[in-house]
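Bumping my old thread because nobody answered last time. Still need a sequence for this structure:
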């Protein structure tokens, strides 16, 4: 994840980010030595892709920061911190997605 994707709104930027994001999550799941977790993350690829496509604009930088905190905890061999930062990343991703989805629904509704 030290290879930061560029920022911007082009498909090429999104594609690079999506590939690195997927690689990050796959690598962590395999490194955990938990085959069921690795399999679950692998099976979620299509769902995560849809999630990324509908993520809030500007979320790339925040996501990279969260990934770096997770990676730092793993490199320092601090499993408690790694679990804590991953849980925080998943929570904040969900909040970003819900907030952006809600704003899209409000914008898409016809006005009376």
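Sorry it took so long. Here it is:
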């Amino acid at each position: 994840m030290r290879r930061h994707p560029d920022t911007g709104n082009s498909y090429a930027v999104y594609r690079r980010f999506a590939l690195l994001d997927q690689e990050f999550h796959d690598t962590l799941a395999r490194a955990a030595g938990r085959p069921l977790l690795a399999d679950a993350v692998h099976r979620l690829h299509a769902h995560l892709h849809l999630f990324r496509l509908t993520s809030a604009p500007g979320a790339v930088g925040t996501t990279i920061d969260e990934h770096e905190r997770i990676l730092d905890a793993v490199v320092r061999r601090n499993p408690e911190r790694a679990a804590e930062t991953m849980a925080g990343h998943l929570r904040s991703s969900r909040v970003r997605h819900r907030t952006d989805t809600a704003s899209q629904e409000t914008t898409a509704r016809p006005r009376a």
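Residues 11-108 form one domain. Let me know if any region looks off to you.
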